[in-house]
Amino acid sequence: MAFDHFVQSGTKQLRCGYTTGTCAALAAEGAVTLLLSGTAPAGLSLRTPKGWTVEVVPETCERLADGSARCTVRKDAGDDPDVTDGMPVIATVSLCEPSPDAVLIDGGEGVGRVTRPGLDQPVGNAAINRVPRQMIRDAVLEVCEELEYDPVSQGAIQVVISIPGGEEKAKKTFNPKLGVEGGLSVLGTSGIVEPMSEQALKDTIAVELRQAFALQKEAGVHRHAVLLTPGNYGKDFLDAQGWSDLGVPVVKISNYVGDALDAAVSIGFTDILLAGHIGKLVKVAGNIMNTHSSVADSRMELLAAHAAVCGAPAELTEHILEAATTDAALDLLEEAGLKDAVMQRVSDAVQKNLRGRAEKALTADAPEHDLTVGAVIFSNVHGLLAVTKPAERLLEHWKEETDHGRTQA
User: Fold this and answer.
1) Among 71, 171, 203, 222, which one is least packed by beta carbons within 10 Å?
2) What is the DSSP string of 214-261?
């Protein structure tokens, strides 16, 4: 059955799909129907948390020699380039002793296990997230109700979700980095895959931040610190400066400066430093918190405006506007003796906008006076360009703590 829901992306219509969590719930529905009724269903249907109904024909639905039942649903990611597209998601269902839990859920072949704190599930659990677990549970209990079977008194339903080939596919995902080993995660908050969605990346950033926070909390630290950087350039710069060795976790945030800052503050980090290339952070000086070029690209306009305020003549501002890269613009500013002054203004604007965004994300658990946010701006060609005052204080404090730790050791 074709899943005919679409989203608009520019001039194209892209077909939506459904998540591994939806597949798992559908497969569980099919398997428990066969287990309790003795008849394999011709079709399966469920209403996702998003409110859209997904209907599928099960690929297989069969009884096994041990008395359990197994059902397979094939993943359909629509037009999204999902590594799990087309993979079989299998639910194997069996009866257990009566239990108040009614539905017991675990992972089998190809489903990862959580090995680090801070994820959706506790360490040791199968990486089947909270919403998919609820979807599986609801699907099973609905069938039980229809067939007048009481799992609390007659026997709990054991559901094991498997994704053959998942261990190999997981190597192409963030799972190894996040601490999910041995397979894929069963994910999805809406039950629907929206093509070209940025949400998966944002969710991954939030997961890494929660993990870093959880590890610091376990260590009993008083102030929770994190270094944010857009990508590999930033990570390489931090390594070269020796700042990656200060005992502060480094989290790559891609272009999502605002979302990452919101997440870091709401999770409870008190000391946050953003280190980024001038090509990204000059946009933050214009309060652009998603730095992808498809969202906004005002790098030269912002540099030209700050240069003009610093005394750059019209001809220089015109050349800056015509520059192909921020490094080329910095060359022009350096020749004119204005680079340091312009970078001071840019960094001041970055600091103001970061602080403003962070304050909006504050909660009662993170009062304003207890939050420090700073920024470091660099260029691959020109090196370190600016360090804001709060960033200077954070770096100095982290260096002192690191030196003290080495002395104690």
Assistant:
1) 222
2) HHHHHHT-SS-EEEEESSHHHHHHHHHHTGGGSS--EEE-TTBHHHHH
How many residues belong to the chain? Answer: 409
Q: Are 96 and 155 in contact (CB under 8 A)?
A: yes
Report the alpha-carbon distance of residue 185 to residue 109 in Å, rounded. 12
DSSP letter (8 states) at residue 360: H
Judged by DSSP in three states, 44 sits in: strand
Tens of pLDDT, residues 285-296: 999 999 988 788
Amino acid 252 reads K
φ, ψ of residue 70 to 5 degrees: the values are -135, 140
- Cβ contacts of 387 within 8 Å, gap of 6 or more: 347, 374, 375, 376, 377, 395
For the segment 299-357, what is each residue's pLDDT rounded down to a tens digit?
999 999 999 999 999 999 999 999 888 999 999 999 999 999 999 999 999 999 999 99
Give residues with Cβ within 8 angstroms of 338, minimum separation 6: 307, 310, 311, 312, 316
